[in-house]
């Protein structure tokens, strides 16, 4: 980063370690999402606003809800502030994630496995 940008970063008082420490207080899922956000930019300082937003979500909703939303993102393999915010807004973190297995309905026009032997 240019010298004047480095000075601005120091004046903000944030660094990656700060956000990781705060995320660890919430839980492992939140720690994972914050680490994903931090590596998503070329310069970590560019991701600090997203990290602040993620931590603010724990105050707006609750740390438990943020953690369950973060775990849901972790299962998907990607975590961003926008994803967490949408999950919390639509209360998807409180839904059961059971996978529904669809079965083929019984019908006269559907042949079974015996037709292919």
Helical content, roughly? Answer: 55-70%
**Largest β sheet strand count, sense and barrel closure:** none
Q: What class, by secondary structure content?
A: mainly alpha
Share of residues in strands: under 5%
Broad shape: elongated
The number of helical runs is 6
Uncertain segments are none
What sequence of helices (H) and strands (E) makes up the elements? HHHHHH
Please compute the radius of gyration using only Cα atoms.
Answer: 21 Å
Give the tally of β-strands: 0
Q: Give the averaged pLDDT, no decimals.
A: 86
Tell me the distance between the termini.
67 Å
Task: Looking at this protein, list some descriptive labels.
117 residues, mainly alpha, 6 helices, single chain, 59% helix
Walk me through the structure.
With 117 residues, the protein is mainly α. It has a domain at 15-94. It has helices at residues 3-12, 16-26, 28-39, 48-60, 63-76, 81-89. Helix 2 (16-26) runs antiparallel to helix 3. The longest helix is centred in the middle third of the chain and has 14 residues, at 63-76. The protein is elongated and about 75 Å long. It starts with a helix and ends in a 28-residue tail after the last helix.
């Amino acid at each position: 980063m240019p010298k004047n940008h480095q000075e601005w970063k120091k004046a903000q008082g944030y660094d990656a370690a700060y956000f990781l420490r705060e995320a660890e207080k919430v839980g492992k899922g939140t720690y994972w999402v914050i680490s994903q956000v931090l590596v998503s930019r070329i310069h970590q300082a560019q991701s600090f606003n997203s990290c602040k937003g993620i931590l603010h979500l724990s105050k707006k909703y609750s740390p438990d809800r943020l953690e369950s939303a973060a775990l849901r993102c972790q299962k998907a393999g990607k975590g961003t502030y926008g994803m967490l915010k949408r999950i919390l807004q639509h209360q998807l973190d409180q839904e059961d994630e059971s996978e529904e297995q669809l079965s083929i309905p019984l019908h006269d026009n559907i042949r079974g496995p015996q037709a292919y032997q």
